[in-house]
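Rotation project, supervised by the postdoc (A.L.). Task for the rotation student: set up a whole-complex structure prediction and record inputs and outputs verbatim in this book. Inputs entered:
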Amino acid sequence: MKATIARLSQLLALYFALFHIGPWVNSFLPDANPLLIEVFAVVLTAIATELLIVAVSPPEVSVDWRDERNPNVLRELNVDSTRLVAGEIYLQMSVTGRARSPLGWLVLAIARRGDLQLRVDMPAAPSYILVDVSLPPSEDADRVRSVAGSNGVTIDLSHPPLPNTWVWARVLLQPRHPDVIVTNDLFDIVVSRHASTRFARACARVIRTSSSAKTMSLYR
Amino acid sequence: MMSQLVLRSDGRPEGVDVVANPGNAPSISFENRDAGVYIPRLGSQDFIRLAVRALQRGWEVERFEILDSTQSSVGESREHEVSEAIATAASIGGITAAVSLLTTSYPTFSVSGVELVASDDTSVILRRGGVLLTDEGASPKSFIEDIWRPSRVA
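Outputs recorded:
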């Protein structure tokens, strides 16, 4: 819906630029080529509206969590502590990229070529994420990797996005201590993005990141 | 002989160490974040990567240890069958083929360990969390040097 509104607004602005701004500018510059002015007005308007769309609705990379036994996207990771200790909590992570304008896709593409990586972490949680398997497979390095010494994972997005899911992983939650203490605490799930080159880092800053589940919690 | 792989500092491959674990203590008890000591986080893809590296170095993959989604063993004959299939895929098509086979043909199974045999017939078993089992008196040095370090897992 948002994308349709943005696109309609852009078309309206382009129509206005073509049929109103061009002739209006031409009235000040009667010697100028009217076609050139119209082209200039349209190109400028297109760039301005693309920038506006990216500013209002930036390109997004989101992580959706699912339980192996439930196809619905999880809004919270509410974990059975007994199953956590037994290492039985299998989850799926799907990463998708979205943009509402060609400029948004360009920003994603530049960041991707600059070795875009997501970092998903739950720093204060009593568990860490063990990556069992990630797709698409790669001979060089796995797309999703556990980070030694942290509770999180890094997700490599340097390859072209796939139509449905950019990267998919099956992960296991593992306890950080042999005895997990159940509390009522909610542990934040933090998503951040990184890129290697300066320009790609600038593009990565424009990209919005999100996780379907914002917190992790335990129950007995 | 049971021991534990631990990673030092930032987890770079050169920072790996083998610590004796005669009492079969849980892997996680070896982790000390304040001291910069971590256990490896090993999943199916890591064991497959290590197996492919081992094959390239002239080792044999004796078997993969296979668990179902409830973390239960799938039984000896089923484990043998799945293990053979993954090892064959790994030797022919590398990591891509073996991971694809696991996720498509055995989507509810995961690899929780691998047994590798060196050319001198000594064997090494590596399990989730970095649990290492070696033959009595055998050193895991060649495993660490030839397979672990170049594989860049965990």
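Student's summary: The first strand of chain B starts at residue 2 and ends at 8.
Supervisor addendum: The beta strands of chain B are 2-8, 16-20, 37-38, 60-67, 110-117, 123-127, 131-134.
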